[in-house]
């Protein structure tokens, strides 16, 4: 009988994150595999916090590989890093490629979502500006330019900048660098005492 939990036919183990009960099983396996090792509660809590980003399957796979390939554990051995490294080494080339492709796809989707939310936010800000200054023309290219020029500012700062710009400027003339104006009005005012 295997000490390491196996993936069920429906693959349910592979999809779940490492929970404390499975982590406790893993530490029991570690204690059984390496005689004389003690894992104080504080250390186990830190290890769990550093390993809980793994799935149950990945954790047990890394732990099993670590126990099979490591002869001894010395004081100062970074067990967390060893388990994660053992897992990475246990991956086949195909699995590595699949994981890399999945990670790139997730990053692409995240960037797309971020672009959409930024562009929606920028569009709403500039609708407010256009309502106050009717001669401003907002095009997708303009929004893209402004979003790029204002990317270092938080949404809160930009909202403050739009509000102050609308309060303090009577008009905006053609050719005015609106992004520069917004940067100036978005910066927090320093109060001199």
Q: What labels describe this entry?
A:
single chain, 66% helix, disordered N terminus, mainly alpha
Describe the structure.
Helices cover 66% and strands 0% of the residues. It starts with 11 loop residues before the first helix and ends in a 7-residue tail after the last helix. With 193 residues, it is mainly alpha-helical. The N terminus is likely disordered. The protein has nine helices and no strands. Helix 4 packs across helix 5 and helix 6 packs across helix 7. It folds into two domains: 79 residues, no CATH class; 79 residues, no CATH class.
Write the layout of secondary structure elements.
Blueprint: H1 12-15, H2 20-33, H3 41-51, H4 56-69, H5 79-90, H6 93-132, H7 140-149, H8 155-168, H9 178-186
Helix pairs in contact: 2-4, 4-5, 6-7, 6-8, 8-9
Q: Tell me how many strands there are.
A: 0
Query: CA-to-CA gap between the ends?
Result: 74 Å
Share in β-strands: under 5%
Percentage of residues in helical conformation: 55-70%
Radius of gyration, taken over Cα atoms and rounded to an integer in Å: 27 Å
Provide the domain count: 2
What's the overall average pLDDT, rounded? 82
Tell me the series of helices and strands, N- to C-terminal.
Answer: HHHHHHHHH
Main beta sheet strand tally, sense and closure: none
Number of helices: 9
Q: What structural class is derived from the secondary structure elements?
A: mainly alpha
Spans of at least 5 consecutive residues with low confidence: 1-14
Shape: elongated
The gist of it:
This protein has 193 residues and is mainly α.
């Amino acid at each position: 009988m295997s000490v390491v939990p196996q993936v069920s036919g429906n693959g349910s183990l592979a999809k779940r994150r490492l929970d404390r009960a499975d982590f406790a099983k893993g530490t029991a396996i570690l204690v059984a595999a390496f005689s004389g090792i003690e894992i104080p509660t504080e250390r186990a809590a830190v290890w769990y916090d550093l390993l809980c980003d793994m799935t149950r399957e990945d954790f047990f796979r890394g732990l099993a590989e670590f126990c099979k390939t490591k002869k001894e554990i010395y004081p100062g051995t970074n067990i967390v890093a060893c388990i994660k490294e053992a897992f990475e080494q246990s991956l086949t080339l195909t699995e590595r490629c699949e994981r890399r492709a999945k990670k790139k796809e997730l990053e692409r989707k995240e960037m797309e979502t971020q672009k959409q939310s930024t562009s929606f936010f920028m569009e709403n800000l500039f609708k407010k500006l256009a309502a106050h200054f009717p001669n401003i023309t907002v095009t997708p290219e303009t929004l893209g330019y402004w979003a790029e020029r204002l990317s270092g500012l938080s949404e809160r700062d930009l909202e403050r900048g739009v509000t102050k710009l609308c309060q303090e400027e009577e008009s905006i003339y053609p050719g005015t660098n609106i992004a520069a104006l917004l940067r100036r009005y978005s910066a927090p005012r320093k109060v001199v005492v």
